[in-house]
Amino acid sequence: MLDVKDLVVAYGQSQALHGISFSAATKETVAIMGRNGMGKTTLFKSLMGVLPIKSGEVRVAGQDISRSESYKRVAQGIAYVPQGRMIFPTLTVEENIQTGLENSVTRRIPEEIYALFPVLWEMRSRKGGNLSGGQQQQLAIARALVTNPKVLLLDEPTEGIQPSIIKDIAKALNEIRKLRDITIVVSEQVLSFAMDVADRLFVIEGGRLVHETARADTDVARIKSYLSV
Ligand SMILES: Nc1ncnc2c1ncn2[C@@H]1O[C@H](COP(=O)(O)OP(=O)(O)OP(=O)(O)O)[C@@H](O)[C@H]1O
Fold first, then answer.
1. Which of 20, 122, 164, 174 shows the smallest number of beta carbons within 10 Å?
2. What range does the domain containing 8 cover?
3. How many structural domains comprise the chain?
4. Atom 3 in ligand 1: residue holding the nearest Cα
5. Name one Pfam family in it (predicted).
6. Residue 104 belongs to a domain
């Protein structure tokens, strides 16, 4: 479903990604693990078209999207939950989700969304800015999901979130891929969360994927050593 090949991205003269390649299948979740500054956000921004790529290719369901404008990529089946969530603080929960429904005539929020995140139903009339960090993260995921993506990208969804809500988010992500034909790519520093949601784990270091493992074969100590400074 998602095929990334030899992705090279630079900030001016400084190269940040040095040829990233990986694929992820429908109904598969992969985690990209790495410390701060290793290139996770750069990877996601370039997949989404927020940052231009220098060379390489990104395919979603076989279609090369790597030269498409960011807004077009949404129609081509890719959705992005950025680091820090970026919800609209002055819009209500319901209005925030509806911003993902721009192309829908009724702008009706599917029931499935509130079934996945019951807290968003309870909070639907509250302003996004009044939600806790964990609730905002669930809101950002809901907003991305209503675009019916084939590929969902989540950049460090557990950052600054309390453990009980991290469990809720893991549960929702596992439920989503059961319900939908979707590929989920999540960047993370929290190994326990990645082990809860991902079928395969990659480690990114200095803009390169340096390690890959299936969940069942994961050498936890080895991944931890990559994540510690
Ligand atoms: N706007 C920018 N201009 C120049 N260099 C940048 C810019 N943004 C990021 N970088 C560099 O690119 C590299 C990768 O950064 P990136 O933000 O992708 O890492 P990350 O793994 O997502 O870390 P974090 O979790 O802190 O966001 C780092 O060396 C960083 O200094």
1. 164
2. 2-85+150-227
3. 1
4. 11
5. ABC_tran
6. no
Residue of 108, 182, 107, 103 whose CA lies nearest to 141 = 182
| 102 CB-near residues (< 8 Å, 6+ apart) | none
105 assigned to some structural domain: no
Best residue among 42, 153, 202 to mutate for probing ligand 1's pocket (most ligand atoms within 8 Å of CB) is 42
The dihedral sign for the CA sequence 183, 189, 193, 196: positive
In-domain check, residue 27: yes
- For residue 71, how far is its CA from the centre of ligand 1 (angstroms)? 23
Residues 6+ apart with CB under 8 A from 207: 9, 15, 16, 17, 18, 20, 38, 39, 42
Pure H helices in the chain: 40-48, 70-75, 93-98, 111-116, 118-122, 133-145, 163-179, 191-197, 220-227
Domain CATH number, residue 11: 3.40.50.300
Centre of ligand 1 to C-alpha 2, Å, is 23
Predicted TM-score (pTM) above 0.80: yes
Nearest CA to ligand 1 atom 1: 11
- The string of pLDDT tens digits covering residues 25-84 is 999 999 999 999 999 999 999 999 999 999 999 999 999 999 999 888 988 999 999 988
| CA distance linking residue 106 with residue 87, whole number of Å | 22
The interface predicted TM-score (ipTM) is: 0.91
The answer to whether position 115 is within a domain reads no
